[in-house]
Amino acid sequence: MAKRIDNPADCEIRAVIRFLQATNIQPADIHRQVCEVYGEGPMSDSMVRRWCRQFENGRDNVHDDKRSGRPSVVTPDLVQQIEVKIRENRRFTITDLAEFFPNVSRKTVHQIVTENLHFRKLCARLVPKNLTPEHKTKRMGSALSFLERYKEGDEFLTHIVTGDET
């Protein structure tokens, strides 16, 4: 019995079909052999027959043909426009933001805000997950001044109280 291979790539199975078809094995036998090694799920008997026919007719590429698909609505320009609107008014809802962009669905606006701009909801408003360069610079400056005061022996650091924003 053959060793079982899990999660094969489609082009891998097609390459096997092409090889077996070139050795004059019938499509039904090819399907049986594919099922022995890859299991029942990866390719049906009719699909094996279809690929055998295509290879017989001269096809030599085992990869999928290019498809146009649906054009993406999310463009860098749209992401930038949404970010500008967010920076104008930090207290927004996705619905409010979607009203500014009537050609874009509410779901797409939510996707841009969370996945492209990496904002998350905090206290009923969305805030960036990562610090902006301005915040990083300010934080670095504060840390350096704290270190200088510490090196001078100032007891200033004993009076610092830290906390989480949330």
UniProtKB/TrEMBL annotation:
For this record, an example GO cellular component is: nucleus
Task: Enumerate the subcellular locations listed in this protein's record, separating them with semicolons.
Answer: Nucleus
**Transmembrane residue ranges:** none
Cite a single Pfam family from the UniProt record. HTH_32
Q: Which domain of life is it from?
A: Eukaryota
What's an example of a GO molecular-function annotation for this chain?
A: nucleic acid binding
The name this protein carries in UniProt is Mos1 transposase HTH domain-containing protein
Question: Which species does the entry assign this protein to?
Answer: Coptotermes formosanus
